[in-house]
């Protein structure tokens, strides 16, 4: 990538905030691992007597029972190991949750981040539901991940201003996604309503949900190809649910290298954002700006964001230049 002459302003978060972010990030990643460990021991195991014989029963969180066999040294060991793992996982998760709360207070005190709280809450909801791997954040909100990784803030705040978040569904994983949602007996709309009950689908565009403050969540997909269903309803839930709108050239966003960062809200709360590589972001934004049917104001903003991210990479994330976009 050609070196640009610096012409944009940056806000240095300062050494104290930078050290705090590093510490908080370490706690958050440990909390993620502890959460996964706790999920692996969800449900319970118990002994059930049938016709005079004790059987070890694994009970899932939705009440499904599975027999693991009659009582024996092996099944008793399975039971004891499960109970020990469950106690240890719950204790570790509880302790890390308390530590995470302290780190979040420190984040707020030292002004570590500025991402919208609603964004953080939605990302955390997707993570807790095991859905993060199906969606990629694209568009303006990706800038929060880039600046978090770089340890600086974009000075051109007009480039950050937006009232909507775009989630790109990986349609190649749709069957797994629908199966997971069917098992959970929920819909995407219901999940984001757990974050904010005021979210409603827009009547004129069913791929958008908007809350009472005007913040929008859009679900998009690549252009239909091969056996992709079209139109595509996100789940088969009987209530209101998102339809997924195709976006031109969105395939390059799925095919590019992934990028992940821990973002921090102004309140100090944290979430992992899975987004696209900054190099892919630059490529896509430049392409959008060249489209003749693109609104003039949006084209100007596309170029501004592309230039900002390009300079950010050159100045603070040069290691990414070895990636192939």
UniProtKB/TrEMBL annotation:
Name of the molecule in the record: Nucleotidyltransferase-like domain-containing protein
Organism, as annotated: Geobacter benzoatilyticus
Residues in Nucleotidyltransferase-like domain copies: 119-323
Domain of life, per lineage: Bacteria
InterPro entries referenced in this protein's UniProt entry, alphabetically: NTP_transf_8_dom
Stored Pfam families: NTP_transf_8 (PF12281)
């Amino acid at each position: 990538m050609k070196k640009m002459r610096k012409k944009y302003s940056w806000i240095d978060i300062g050494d104290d905030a930078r050290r705090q972010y590093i510490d908080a990030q370490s706690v958050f990643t440990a909390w993620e691992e502890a959460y996964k460990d706790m999920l692996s021991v969800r449900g319970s195991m118990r002994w059930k007597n049938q016709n005079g014989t004790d059987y070890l029963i694994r009970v899932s969180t939705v009440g499904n029972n599975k027999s693991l066999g009659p009582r024996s040294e092996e099944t008793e060991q399975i039971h004891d190991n499960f109970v020990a793992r469950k106690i240890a996982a719950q204790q570790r998760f509880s302790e890390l949750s308390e530590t995470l709360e302290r780190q979040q207070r420190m984040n707020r005190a030292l002004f570590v981040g500025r991402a919208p709280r609603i964004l953080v809450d939605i990302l955390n909801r997707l993570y807790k539901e095991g859905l993060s791997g199906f969606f990629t954040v694209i568009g303006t909100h990706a800038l929060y991940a880039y600046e978090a990784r770089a340890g600086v803030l974009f000075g051109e705040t007009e480039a950050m201003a937006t009232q909507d978040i775009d989630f790109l569904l990986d349609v190649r994983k749709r069957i797994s996604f629908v199966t997971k949602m069917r098992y959970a007996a929920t819909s995407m709309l219901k999940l984001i309503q757990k974050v904010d009950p005021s979210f409603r689908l827009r009547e004129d565009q069913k791929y958008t949900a908007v809350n009472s403050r005007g913040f929008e969540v859009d679900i998009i997909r690549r252009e239909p190809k091969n056996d992709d269903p079209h139109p595509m309803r996100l789940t088969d839930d009987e209530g209101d649910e998102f339809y997924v709108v195709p976006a031109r050239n969105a395939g390059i966003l799925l095919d590019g290298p992934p990028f992940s960062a821990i973002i921090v809200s102004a309140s100090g709360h944290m979430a992992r954002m899975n987004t696209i590589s900054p190099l892919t972001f630059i490529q896509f934004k430049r392409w959008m700006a060249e489209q003749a049917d693109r609104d003039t104001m949006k084209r100007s903003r596309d170029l501004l964001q592309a230039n900002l991210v390009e300079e950010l990479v050159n100045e603070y994330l040069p290691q990414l230049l070895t990636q192939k976009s």
